[in-house]
Amino acid sequence: MHTDGTTHQPLSEVALGELASRARIIRKTSLGMVHAAGVGHPGGDLSAADILAALYFHVLRIDPGSPRWPERDRFIMSKGHCSAAFYTALAEVGFFPREMLAEYMKPLSMLNGHPDRNKLSGVEANTGPLGHGLPIAVGAAKAAKITGAEWRTFVLTGDGELQEGSNWEAAMAASQFGLDNLTVIVDRNGLQQGEATERTVGLEPLDARWRSFGWAVREVDGHDLGALVGQFSVVPFETGRPSCVIAHTHKGRGVSFMEDRAAWHHRVPTDAELASALLELDGVAR
Predict the structure, then answer these.
(1) Could you read off the pLDDT of 28-41 as tens digits, one per residue?
(2) 220: which strand partners?
(3) For a Cys staple, 47 with which of 68, 110, 189, 247, CB 3.0–4.6 Å?
(4) CATH 3.40.50.970 at 3-281, yes or no
(5) pTM of the prediction?
């Protein structure tokens, strides 16, 4: 399967439905993986599902049959602790068999709690220690500029992750180098481990912060697939500037008893909670 990247045309209802179906699969599958493993970060998996679906099934120029294709777009999952959703997207797009998802977190599994590019096809960078993904992405985007390559770099960060100073050093460098081939997407669900971001280390006004570092910034509903694709389709937002998409999301999106609750940052659903969540995601209950 080869994904050719974005177009500037609005998505049809059929295409939107297909993306919604992919996002639902990411949510259901990742929840089942966390439940089976007895560990994981389901709240963030669910908040990022629509972003991952939009990227992997419409935006990124990739070829799972040739994972190191030189002209591929690079995607870096900086919030690497949300690996269950990331692995599901990779499997669904064809980087490895879906059956491998059952090995999540098992001893000697290639599907670690944090992604490892040396073990799994489709992973561009080892992530998990927060604040590392954006600096790596800046290096990738700079490499493309140096060599004259046309591939783009996208990186997904958590909002709590932005409290790491390495992100802002990288943001300054990206602006200095004019990396308009770089797009950062902030999964702005407002919650981190145990608490709201604004009661931990405040980030607002987040859009103004990014602009002050020289980035072109847009905000979007991170669960509106059409809006997400629309923004990703027109990057760079300004020639000569890196792009930032602040995607407003809900932790635990799609499961009413999980939504906007910090406890689900890393809580594992019980058998009954998993069954209820899967029904709700299928639209059987709400």
Answers:
(1) 999 999 999 999 99
(2) 247
(3) 189
(4) yes
(5) 0.95
